[in-house]
Amino acid sequence: MNYDVYAQKALSGILLDSQEMHAILQTPNDDILPLLHSAFQVRKHHFGRTVQIQVLMNAKSGLCPEDCGYCSQASNSDAPIDKYPLRPAEEIIDAARQAKANGAYRYCIVTSGRAPTDREVDAVADVVQQIKQDIDIDICCCLGLLNENKAQRLKEAGVDRVNHNLNTSKNHTPNIVSTHTYEDRVNTLHAIQKVGLDTCAGGIVGMGETHDDIIDMAVSLREIKVDSIPVNFLHAIDGTPLANSESLSPYDCLRALCLFRFVNPHTEIRVAGGREKNLRSLQPLALYPANSLFMEGYLTTDGLGVSDTHKMIADLGFEVKTMETENPLALVQ
Ligand code: SF4
Questions:
Q1: CA of 329 to the centre of ligand 1 (A)
Q2: Could you tell me if 243 and 235 are in contact, meaning their C-beta atoms sit under 8 angstroms apart?
Q3: What was the pLDDT predicted at 333?
Q4: pLDDT confidence of 165, banded at 50, 70, 90?
């Protein structure tokens, strides 16, 4: 098999055909290195050896009325997690300052819930305005379903990007959640795009979906033209409906990341939640297709810390992308 064909097509802007996409997800373990090499050609062309680090802030946790089967904060979850309303502004701002000091390019403020109230949008917007005045860091918000008015309010406050994941394919969505639809999620992405905010949308692999579902999600994200794709791997949490899901192998994760890279060649691809649990000692290989990662854990699960994350990137011979390396003039001003 000549795996370079995938890179050639991706670099020419050609969408792989269905057979090729299935073949990627079925790549034999013995061929994982040539597959990664081919995905790396695409990653290197668009992003060089840079890695964007992103830090999450779980600004409001638990108590969500929705029933997303993977989520420890859902109404149908018994997982013993911390539950709290929107954290005080100073805490969110201090954590942004710390994220910047630790080399993060982007800070993502996340709140649980179906959709934010006007008051919550205002509160988050105020915090973002304060962060933007003091700290040179890109801001992403993930607040649930949004309409254009709320998205506009966030944009005016200085938010750079909004995340709202598709999570899975249109077909598989009803197996994962009953309280909102795939269309609700797509409509939120359109509202975000309409006001001129960057869009971040990805999904979770390992929720009992088929290869067709993974391919459908990758292609849908290409069609929606999102700017960033977080690829999560299910971290099955006790007390959630998906607690007993079959686990992924590290190779499954690498094959999925390669697929997302070939289908979305110039989009930021982030190896996201469940990285440590599912990729285990093969985590570094994920940065051949992906060019971005989370540091210091996720919403309710832990992850690789600051020093180990930087060490992994340095050991690979990759470099952390910062506002300063992207815009050298910022260093001399
Ligand atoms: S993923 Fe979001 S909307 Fe779904 S249950 Fe969790 S907090 Fe609620």
A1: 40
A2: no
A3: 41
A4: very high
